[in-house]
Specification:
Blueprint: E1 6-10, H1 14-25, E2 29-33, H2 42-48, E3 52-54, H3 57-60, E4 65-68, E5 88-91, H4 113-120, E6 125-129, H5 135-139, E7 143-144, E8 147-155, H6 158-171, E9 174-177, H7 183-188, E10 200-201
Parallel strand pairs: 1-2, 1-4, 2-3, 4-5, 5-6, 8-9
Antiparallel strand pairs: 6-8, 7-8, 8-10
The structure holds NADP nicotinamide-adenine-dinucleotide phosphate.
């Protein structure tokens, strides 16, 4: 397992900020970017503290491990941001067609959302995670009186999954492996049985 001291975060909204907060609290440097530029993120990085830096989207895409915390439908705009080959990309997106969830899902045909994302980020090692819970559950302390907050993950690259599982564990979540981007993705994505499920895990024995 590789430890990633610097983490890129694309998207600085609910999910991006929640993940960034966990990362800085656990000693990682964070490069966080949005579409409007770093000057719009000064309050966000002040809140996150000295380990967080507001950067351009291009810069946020440079680390070996990048969180995708952007709307699903903007993913095609990210294709040319960097050479994605070999990078671990943690895909937190849910495949809404527009910014208005009432307008339904983006049509990706027979693919799962993360398989479609993988098709736009050539060579990236995608790990689906964090999309099944509301941002408030990511921002909260994962250790609840009745157990640890579960974060499901899925991916087709075993090494990338091990790194992400290690990070989830470090953040204090109960990381549960659901397999590959197809089978796991079907369980996790919008309309899947585990989407929107907030589960706590109790370790017994
Ligand atoms: N909110 C939740 O509880 C939740 C739960 C599970 C999964 N998700 C998924 O997680 C993703 C993020 O959700 P969110 O609630 O955090 O969204 P959000 O609060 O609307 O934030 C979206 C972020 O993406 C940035 N962005 C948009 N286009 C971009 C681009 N081309 N390049 C770089 N950054 C770009 C936005 O920056 P600008 O403002 O500068 O455009 C903004 O910082 C979505 O796919 C959502 O479906 C959300």
């Amino acid at each position: 397992m590789t430890t990633h001291s610097t983490i890129g975060i694309l998207g600085a909204g609910n999910i991006g900020q929640a993940v960034a907060d966990k990362a800085v609290r656990h000693g990682h440097e964070v490069l966080i970017g949005n579409s409007r530029g770093p000057e719009t993120l000064q309050a966000v990085v002040e809140q996150l503290g000295p380990k967080a830096r507001a950067v351009t989207a291009e810069e946020a895409a440079q680390p070996d491990l990048v969180f995708l915390a952007v709307p699903f439908f903007v993913v095609p705009d990210l294709t040319g941001l960097t050479d994605w080959s070999g990078k671990i990309v943690v895909d937190a997106t849910n495949q809404f067609a527009t910014a208005n969830p009432a307008e339904g899902r983006y049509d990706v045909g027979d693919l799962t959302g993360s398989e479609w994302v993988a098709g736009h980020l050539a060579g990236a090692r995608i790990v689906k995670a964090f999309n099944t819970v509301f941002a408030a559950f990511i921002a909260a302390d994962p250790q609840h009186a009745d157990g640890r907050q579960v974060i499901f993950y899925a991916g087709d690259d075993a090494d990338a999954k091990a790194d992400v599982a290690g990070l989830l564990d470090e953040f204090g979540f109960a990381a549960l492996d659901l397999g590959g981007l197809r089978a796991g993705g079907q369980l996790m994505q919008l309309g899947g049985p585990l989407n929107g499920r907030h589960l706590l895990l109790q370790d017994v024995g």
